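=== Per-residue structure ===
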Amino acid sequence: MKRVYFLCLFFSALFSVSLNAQVKNSFLRADTISVLPVFEKADFSNIVAGVDLDKDGKPEIYGVNGNMDDFPDEMIPSLVKFELQDGKWKQVWSTSLDLTAQNSWPAICVGDLDKDGRPEIIWGPTNYLSETNPNPIRIAVFEARGDTSEALGIDNFGNSLPNATWTITTDAQQQIRPIRWFVSDPDSDDQNELVYCDYSGTEGQSTVFGVISVDSIPNNGGGVEKWTMEVSAKSPGMSSIPVNATYDIAELNNVLYAIQGNGTVYPVKFENKAWKTLPAQTTVGNSKASWKSAQVVDIDNDGKKEIVFGSWKDGKVYLCRQEADTLVSTQIGDFTQFGITQLNGGASGDLDGDGKIDFAFGTRADKSKPVNAVCRLQYLGGAIDDPKSYSATIIDSLIHATSGQLDAMVITDVDNDKKMELVYTSGYGRGPIDLPRIPIVILKYDGTSFVKQEIGNIPETFNLEQNFPNPFNPSTTIKFGLPGEASVSLKIFNILGQEVATLINNEHMTAGTYNVGFNASSLSSGTYIYQLSYNNQTVNRKMLLMK
């Protein structure tokens, strides 16, 4: 009899697990910033977030465009500043470069190249070569003005000019396309340098990687600065590094690791007053490569840093530790269980405030189920090279139903609430030009809700059921059904009509039946209204919290 009882429990649990496929757990789209008309058909191609360059106490987000379909406006490189004012993100400044064309995947970062205390936006519009554009600007530096102005750079009758620019090369018609860069000091000379990787892959032209220095970023511009290419794959002694599209670069203990698209890693080190190459590594991360995802972190706070990256060839996550100057890699995460075969972009930080690091990775729309999944690899504690020390989940998806490549992301406190948020967007549209572009999304850990979709249960009509249990204390579940794809919001209001919680915020969801968990621990007893908006329909129901 006991055996039958336990078998019943087992199959009951098995049925329960198969019934619900978890879609989102405890993360909410707190806000979105729409693509601007000046970007035309292109997405925000890269972002900087969690900064306050004008030091007015208001958080800032910077976005740049890229070129997707060669439309006139998107061909012109544009930089836009948004600031959080009175709880809303507002555009407060923008500028464009005097270029007639650009390409895709521009690099951008924040730094202080000349160490003068004025932070800079360091922007790399991707070259689009032509007879009239033979050697365009590839580096544009906009420095904070040091006053209360929202603008950066040099005032030019309403527009802003960069404080400093460089073409990287003096030769014409050279395909040099930095896709990712950061400010560091890899040669330990107490001078900041710009470290980058080059995705052009054009034989005889591409630099593969580079380390660039500049003697100053003039406060008043004028072109008096002096730029120096400290080292690249075109430098003497670097001939062992072949030209190949290089989509990522990381620095660990003053060793640069250029990660090429074929998975081979080329280490470069400054030693004995000279740059030198180290033996190439062909087995790092099973040779699956990284697309702008490498994070240099100290996972377990033992004083030793590691590199973690998500592969753009197999949907898995790899930990790389240094032995001497060689990287030894271990697989620590696997998102193929969700139907994801490609990870793009990455960020790291403590998303849920538990004191342990989280990693976030984007996806490419046609390589992800659900489409445009945002992936989280959560460190749970324990041995950092043990996959059991991590949990892989999808924390957002379907910001667009068919197109996008979510390869621009940052984990930071973007709203000064002392909590980390994930800010992400699409680096490249990958869809028909008539589709809506993907906004900047701010994803916040909520901790009071979950969303689960019942497998195979698609209703014929839109419906919103009574929450269960009701009355409740403090948790309840709200069930609704969608007969087709829709933009959905689910919000909670008190009896005065004041919004007290948002469980789903204008998210694109597929047809199906959903169960949404809601924890009202922070609310007082009383009657509340939950409101479900589905396309142009809205339905309200009451629920009773009794503590």
